[in-house]
Design brief:
single chain, alpha+beta, two-stranded antiparallel ribbon, 12% strand
Length: 121
C-alpha cells in the first residue's frame, strides 16, 4: 500500500517517485482498531498532498469470499462488519485531506455474479 506517482525523468522516461510503503489493509484489519485505520488513512492522505496526487485508487471495500482470490491483500476482511467499520474509518480519514478517492472493489466481479446466476450442470 502506498501512493504511486509517476514522473518523467531527464531522458523522457517514466520513473516512479519514491513513497512510504504501508502494510496492506488486511494487516490493518488484524488490528481490529478504528484508530489505526484512521491514522493510516490520514497518513496516506498526507502523502497524496505532499506528492501532489489528487486521486487515489483504493482500498477495496468488498469482503474476501475465497482464499484463492489473488487480490485478497487489497481487501480488509472476510467479516463484513469488521471490513465495513475499518473501511469507513480509513476512507473518511483519506477524504478529509484528499480531493478524490475511488474504491477499487465495491461490487462483485463478473465471476462472482456468474457463479451465483449460472444454472447447475
Amino acid at each position: 500500500m502506498g501512493v504511486r506517482k509517476v514522473a518523467e525523468s531527464k531522458n523522457d522516461a517514466e520513473v516512479t517517485v519514491p513513497s512510504v510503503a504501508y502494510p496492506s489493509v488486511q494487516v490493518l484489519a488484524n488490528t481490529w482498531s478504528e484508530e489505526c485505520a484512521r491514522l493510516m488513512g490520514a497518513s496516506i492522505a498526507d502523502d497524496c498532498i505532499s506528492l501532489g496526487v489528487d486521486v487515489l485508487l483504493g482500498p477495496g471495500v468488498n469482503i474476501k469470499r475465497s482464499p484463492f482470490c489473488g487480490r485478497n491483500f487489497e481487501l480488509f476482511s472476510e467479516d463484513p462488519y469488521l471490513a465495513g467499520i475499518l473501511a469507513r474509518a480509513y476512507i473518511s480519514a483519506m477524504q478529509e485531506g484528499v480531493s478524490g478517492h475511488v474504491s477499487s472493489i465495491f461490487v462483485p466481479t463478473i465471476s462472482n455474479l456468474t457463479e451465483r446466476t449460472s444454472p447447475a450442470t
